[in-house]
């Protein structure tokens, strides 16, 4: 986004992303509107770029049961903690840049305390 959004606007975008990613309004194509095409993915099973993440998630995501446990954003980092079907509890960490997700981690991530 240009000009880059304020921290408050990024927080609102994060909340909207969470809602369409794992919330009651789950809609994976809409969630991917918040992810830059060349985002960095630290999952060893995925390549960088939103196309790689899409090819992994899209075949099963919408049919999978998700339960949001908690989410938070601090500065340019956000965390989403949820239960996903047969995968169990997951913590995804995202780095935001200019109002969009630019980087992702999900291996051994812990939800931040206080």
TrEMBL record:
InterPro entries named in the record: NTF2-like_dom_sf
Superkingdom of the source species: Eukaryota
Protein name (Swiss-Prot/TrEMBL): Uncharacterized protein
Organism: Parathielavia hyrcaniae
Lineage of source species: Eukaryota, Fungi, Dikarya, Ascomycota, Pezizomycotina
